[in-house]
Design goal:
With 1035 residues, this protein is an alpha+beta fold. It contains 37 helices and 26 strands. The strands form four sheets. Strands 10, 11, 14, 15, 16, 17, 18, 19 and 20 form a nine-stranded mixed beta sheet that branches. A hairpin with a 2-residue loop joins strand 10 and strand 11. The two termini are 31 Å apart. It is a multi-pass membrane protein. It catalyses: Ca(2+)(in) + ATP + H2O = Ca(2+)(out) + ADP + phosphate + H(+). Its main location: membrane.
Length: 1035
């Protein structure tokens, strides 16, 4: 079986090829009871092709509209303009431009129309918005009524009744309904009203119960996925409203809003550039053009759906929702479906194999029943005489055979994965992890390596300047007298130069909140330095620093520095550069002294500076340097100078380790997961933090990115297993490490990232984890999971739930296969020997619901426990159905078959059951014992290896609820619905026998778990795991 599954149903966890997707679909073939339900969570590949073609077509039209049409209009010198009228509603609201006209200016890049309206200043006046204060929050409803809401048309959610209709598409249920109707017709003709309709009505009511329970479960899942999907789409952006900077949902964005854009952002609506620096827009998602576009006041149009590749800017929103090209594009595309997960595919394979076996057994059962019936009839009354009761008997035989197929084809297996994943994703959402792709939650349970960032993930990201070096003086800034000491140590000119460098060369800004309080916004590093500058400024009045920014080079993770060119009052220009200490120091040939004068940077001074940097880094401080260079003239197209700078200051910034990180890392080690830190920081800082977290051990290696990327493949083969810290790394180094871990060592790799340049590594990894707070929208879009609180402990929680999903599905498969084997064998053997099936169609439908929908609900939603994180992960290519599972399945099946066989062939004698209805009583007892065997085996399946199956049971309300409902309804069926279910009420002694025989399953389970089995290459533990811990908890 395992070889067949690997050949036909093996699928990578990420980016599967279309060939692999079509291969397993072909292997499933036509043996599917209900294609609509079974493949609901599987993408329609043909529809996906159509969507891709449609997207390309629309992109081409947009590209033509943006570039070709624009060029033609410019060349011709104008085109016929549409006449836009101002309606009474627009005038009454105080606006002076029609929504369609405003939208067309941006979408068509119409510079002439923009100038005609007075440029961006004129537009802002016509939509009652100002650049410094934005719009008024009281206008939001009015703006949405006139200019539209920022949503595009989506398909309405499916109703509950549509899921009922899907459940009714089951071919076997349709056949059973036909059989039931035939049974009613024949029964009424032969036995009269109302007795003749009981059998058929019982089947119909059972079918309706199965359909309603199935539809309710599927509908609940769809609501969970819809909620999660809305969370994925809900992006928050910074806007200015009522004069204060605010964070709002893109759905609340309106025309006139002043939006702040920065690197990695997705543009939320069409708009016009107000001002900014080096704004580079990637329009490939909208127009298909791969070349990014520089946006400025000369080219001011910014379209929704595009991404900020570099720089920062402010824009004014001119159109939202369906008035944007992006909105129209998205509304034309249907959702092609998310890629199926490896477990879903594998369980489709298991369902296919079992379904084929079940079909054979069902056919044989019907053939044997018919053969015996015909032989008996031929020997008694002859084959020439036929009665309505004969027709009823044949219909019932056929219904039984079809019901065997219902039970034997486990449609619920692949859907149980979806149920378990939906449950896990909902719980993870509450625990600050947003799973964007289903497979990620499943795959995270198999992760053997986590490549994590340092800043904000292992540390708190709440930074403060802790130490400072200036004019060859090193000071701790945490003491009360630090500012006074610094004031006495350096001159006013050095002080002024320091403040100018802090306030001019920064991406942080002071904004006023709704409460009137001023807040510093920016990255944590920028905020720390800016706030320190404010303290310095408050201590001593600085010289006038009035100057104009001429050019800004924003920070990026490749250059590891940012620079700004300012124009000084005297007419000269000055470059300020701030960034990674080693890089900035190499750019300097001068350093300021205590008087603020530039002096040569001698070898001795340089050595002292490097020693200071290493000293700060060894204290787990991030180090940044600030330098300047005065220039007479400059080239606007050229980058900042690579050398000739004068060093001003070294900052040592403290970023404490998050509480609980050390314990989380130890939990990873216990779980067989290797944690590797990949950071852009100084290697000494990285090593200090890694040791504090427990990542860097005595036998581990810390390496710098430039060294790593120069290694040959042979060297990497020896080096990579030992790497625990990679410092001064580029995103390219992270991508290279991930690629080699997956390729050379077949590791399942999870990687964290927050920047735009991390997108390739996030995409390459088995599980990409983007940071929810520090992460850019580009990083989040490339990720599989968004860690909403940027906390490493949350990542471990995702791994816990991933393992829970995998193990829960194994539990469910073990439980369901046991039911399948027993139901198939008992009905077939009984048909061969006695000529009748002990379990009727109605009874089998109830058993099917117990093992399918209710079983999945009980076992697939078990929460994770600490024991899961004391085992190594499941590696690539390991068997899903382990030897441990086969041991439990075969052992329980043998016990149940013995019990049911003894009851079937010797029950009347052993239990002294006599009378006219003895056969009905014994069949009821068989049915009741069979159900209670499944109830107790369901409890047994909670632990596949440990004897104590009751641990955590009382805290699992879903499991208790399902078991309780099953028992209560079983009592109702036996005691009150016998007319429809072909049962009779049982005495209390017989109830005790049924429950007692079922409960022995627990004892059998405990005995089976004492039998050692080989479990592949890894161990004889459940799921291919090796036990790492000993003690009472392992029992």
């Amino acid at each position: 079986m395992e070889r067949y599954l690997q050949e036909n149903f093996e699928l990578p966890s990420k980016n599967p090829s279309e060939e692999a997707q079509r291969r397993w679909r072909s292997a499933v073939g036509t043996l599917v009871k209900n294609r609509r339900r079974r493949f609901r969570h599987v993408p329609d590949l043909d529809q996906r092709h159509q969507d891709h073609a449609k997207r390309r077509s629309v992109q081409e039209k947009i590209r033509v509209a943006l570039y070709v049409q624009q060029a033609a209009i410019t060349f011709i010198g104008g085109a016929k303009k549409n006449e836009y009228q101002l309606t009474e509603d627009i005038i009454k609201a105080g606006f002076s431009i029609n929504p369609e006209e405003l939208a067309s200016i941006t979408s068509k890049h119409d510079l002439k129309a923009l100038k005609m309206h007075g440029g961006v200043d004129g537009i802002s006046k016509k939509i009652r918005s100002t650049f410094d204060r934005g719009i008024s929050c009281s206008d939001l409803d009015t703006r949405q009524n006139i200019y539209g809401v920022n949503r595009y048309a989506e398909k309405p959610s499916r109703s509950f009744w549509s899921f009922v209709w899907d459940a009714l598409q089951d071919m076997t249920l349709i056949i059973l309904m036909v059989c039931a109707l035939l049974s009613v017709v024949v029964g009424l003709a032969s036995e009269g009203w109302p007795k003749g309709m009981y059998d058929g009505l019982g089947i119909i009511l059972s079918i309706l119960l199965v359909v309603m329970v199935t539809a309710a479960s599927d509908y609940k899942q769809s609501l969970q996925f819809k909620e999660l999907d809305n969370e994925k789409k809900n992006i928050f952006i910074h806007v200015t409203r009522d004069g204060s900077r605010q964070k709002v949902s893109i759905y609340d964005l309106v025309v006139g809003d002043i939006v702040h854009l920065s690197i990695g952002d997705q543009v939320p609506a069409d708009g016009i550039f107000i001002h900014g620096y080096s704004l580079l827009i990637d329009e490939s998602s909208l127009s298909g053009e791969s070349e990014p576009v520089y946006t400025s006041q000369d080219k001011p149009f910014i379209l929704a759906g595009t991404k900020v590749q570099d720089g920062s800017a402010k824009m004014i929103v001119t159109s939202v929702g369906m008035r944007t090209e992006w909105g129209r594009l998205m509304s034309t595309l249907s959702e092609g479906g998310e890629d199926e997960t490896p477990l879903q595919v594998k369980l489709n394979g298991v369902a296919t194999i079992i379904g084929k076996i079940g079909l054979v057994f069902a056919t044989l059962t019907f053939v044997v029943l018919m053969a015996r019936f015909l032989v008996d009839k031929g020997l008694t009354v002859g084959l020439s005489k036929w009665y309505s009761t004969d027709a009823l008997t044949i219909v019932n035989y056929f219904a039984t055979a079809v019901t065997i197929i219902v039970v034997a084809v486990p449609e619920g297996l692949p859907l149980a994965v979806t149920l378990s994943l939906a449950f896990a994703m909902k719980k993870l959402m509450n625990d600050k992890a947003l799973v964007r792709h289903l497979a990620a939650c499943e795959t995270m349970g198999s992760a053997g390596t986590i490549c994590t960032d340092k800043t904000g993930t292992l540390t708190t990201n709440h930074m403060v300047v802790d130490k400072i070096w200036i004019a060859e003086i090193s000071k701790s800034v945490t003491s009360n007298n630090s500012l006074e000491d610094l004031n006495s140590a350096i001159s006013s000119s050095a002080w002024s130069l320091l403040l100018q460098g802090i306030f001019e060369n920064t991406s942080a800004e002071v904004v006023e909140g709704k409460d009137g309080k001023q807040t510093v916004l920016g990255t944590p590093t920028e905020i720390a330095i800016f706030e320190y500058g404010l303290k310095l400024q408050g201590y001593r009045d600085a010289e006038d620093r009035t100057c104009t920014k001429v050019k800004v080079e924003p920070f990026n993770s490749v250059k590891k520095k940012m620079a700004v060119l300012i124009s000084l009052p005297g007419g000269t220009n000055r470059w300020f550069c701030k960034g990674a200490s080693e890089i900035v120091v190499e750019m300097c040939d001068m350093v300021i002294d205590e008087d603020g004068n530039a002096i040569p940077l001698s070898d001795a001074r340089k050595k002292n500076i490097i020693d200071t940097i290493n000293s700060f880094a060894s204290d787990a401080l991030r180090t940044l340097c600030l330098a300047f260079k005065d220039v007479d003239d400059f080239d606007e197209d050229a980058d900042s100078p690579p050398s000739g700078f004068t060093l001003i200051v070294i900052f040592g910034i403290k970023d404490p380790v998050r509480p609980g990180v050390k314990e989380a890392v130890q939990s990873c080690i216990s779980a067989g997961i290797i944690v590797r830190m990949v950071t852009g920081d100084n290697i000494n800082t990285a090593k200090a933090i890694a040791k504090e977290c427990g990542i860097l051990t005595d036998d581990g290696i810390a390496i710098e990115g430039p060294d790593f990327r120069t290694k040959s493949p042979e060297e990497m083969m020896d080096l990579i297993p030992k790497i625990q810290v990679m410092a001064r790394s580029l995103p390219l180094d992270k991508h290279l490490l991930v690629t080699n871990l997956r390729g050379m060592f077949q590791e399942v790799v999870a990687v964290t990232g927050d920047g735009t340049n991390d997108a390739p590594a996030l995409h390459e990894a088995d599980i990409g984890l983007a940071m929810g707070i520090a992460g850019t929208e580009v990083a989040k879009e490339s990720a599989d999971v968004i860690v909403l609180d940027d906390n490493f402990t949350t990542i471990i929680n995702v791994a816990r739930w991933g393992r829970a999903v995998y193990i829960n599905i194994q539990k469910f498969v073990q439980f369901q296969l046991t039911v399948n084997i027993v139901a198939l064998v008992i009905n077939f053997v009984s048909a061969c020997i006695t000529g009748s099936a002990p379990l009727t169609a109605v009874q089998l439908l109830w058993v099917n619901m117990i093992m399918d929908t209710l079983g999945a609900l009980a076992l697939a939603t078990e929460p994770p426990n600490d024991e899961m994180m004391k085992r190594p992960p499941v590696g690539r290519g390991e068997s899903f159905i382990t030897n441990v599972m086969w041991r439990n399945i075969i052992g329980q099946s043998i016990y149940q078959l013995i019990v049911l066989g003894v009851l079937m062939f010797g029950g009347e004698t052993f239990l002294n059951i006599k009378g006219a209805d003895s056969k009905t009583v014994i069949n009821t007892l068989i049915f009741n014992s069979f159900v209670f065997c499944q109830v107790f085996n369901e409890v047994n399946s909670r632990e596949m290896e440990k004897i104590n199956v009751f641990r955590g049971l009382l805290s699992n309300w879903v499991f208790i609820g399902v078991i309780s409902a099953t028992v209560v309804f079983q009592v109702v069926i036996i005691e009150f619905l016998g007319t429809f279910a072909s049962t009779v009420p049982l005495s209390w002694e017989h109830w005790l026998v049924s429950v007692g025989l079922g409960s022995i399953s627990l004892i059998i389970g405990a005995i089976l778990k004492c039998i050692p089995v080989k479990s592949g290459e890894i161990s004889a533990s459940p799921n291919g795991y090796r036990q790492l811990a000993n003690g009472p908890d392992d029992i």
